[in-house]
Design a protein that fits this description.
The protein has helices at residues 9-16, 20-29, 45-57; strands at 6-8, 35-37, 40-44. It is of the alpha+beta class. Helix 1 (9-16) packs across helix 2. The longest helix has 13 residues, at 45-57. The mean pLDDT is 91.
Length: 64
């Protein structure tokens, strides 16, 4: 896909194998960048890939 391709929240959810409400929560928390077009949210393909890179490359801190 082109880096500027816009995905619906449903498409983003399907790609990440989660339900769409999870995408909305990620947007609300600021974990995933999104663009509001009218009343609908859209996620750029590049932003989705950036989210995956950030979430998979951070080592987990051991709990004390």
């Amino acid at each position: 896909m082109d880096k500027d391709t816009l995905l619906t929240t449903k498409q983003a959810a399907k790609y990440l194998q989660v339900v769409p409400i999870t995408i909305y929560r990620m947007i609300d928390r600021g974990d995933l960048k999104a663009i509001k077009v009218g009343t609908r949210w859209r996620v750029r393909w590049e932003d989705l890939q950036d989210y995956l890179t950030r979430s998979t490359s951070q080592p987990k801190e051991p709990k004390p």
